[in-house]
């Protein structure tokens, strides 16, 4: 049994090396994660912020990288092509995200009311498959599906009498094709998040609500909605951030074409940085995109998550 003198000394403080670093094993296990975060996340962000205030052209490194202040930001904000790419990205987000949330909610409600446990488990596993597919592979699958000569899309539309379409050569159809592939890949993510929210609803309250009213819409709005809002906030934040920086799937599927029909903001930033070789301008555009993402996330938290709280 510990002596009273030991209790009087209070909790034992971790031993420190050289008076600075703690000797606790937990601290040393955190060092690899901290180092990876600093190398992969913090350093590139600081480098992009530094480059955004300098003239940094890869094709003219001999002239150096002089400090030019806010010139890159001013040039970006007055660039009509930048705003057109941002507008296409915003349109893609406003059209695709509601579809993913609606289909995900429909799938979550079906799985929530599914009686057979083994069937529910099999459905959950199948939902993970599209999410586990990398963006580049999704783009390649899209190129095969919407190929004019042997694509599945023209075969299915031909069953209802629609003639073959050149999906990836038509600006509107190419935009729709990218939407379809994104909905296929990320609707399961929305379904699983919303299903987790539905599983938090007390079963007794849900059974009592079904006895009171047979309308599922009233049960969803008055009982299940508060449990869905935190997950919905996470979906809005994560999917909006993903769509704003969406590159791999679009680039492998359409390369931003035809013309500029699917040149979203991330594809445009890549073109400025690695085809026009203007790293300073591309860094400024990336910082502006980061600021827009943070502002959008704060709006979601303010208006959606606060209602849940």
From TrEMBL:
Signal peptide from the UniProt entry: none
GO cellular component: plasma membrane
Main localization category: membrane
GO biological process: transmembrane transport
Name of this protein: Binding-protein-dependent transport systems inner membrane component
Species for this entry: Caballeronia cordobensis
Record domain ABC transmembrane type-1: where: 86-300
The keyword Transmembrane is annotated on this UniProt entry: yes
Sequence intervals crossing the membrane: 26-50, 90-111, 123-146, 173-198, 219-238, 282-301
Domain of life: Bacteria
Keywords: Cell membrane, Membrane, Transmembrane, Transmembrane helix, Transport
Localization of this protein: Cell membrane
Source taxonomy: Bacteria, Pseudomonadati, Pseudomonadota, Betaproteobacteria, Burkholderiales
Any matching Pfam family: BPD_transp_1
Membrane topology note: Multi-pass membrane protein
Family according to the record: Belongs to the binding-protein-dependent transport system permease family.
The keyword Transport is assigned to this record: yes
Coiled-coil positions: none
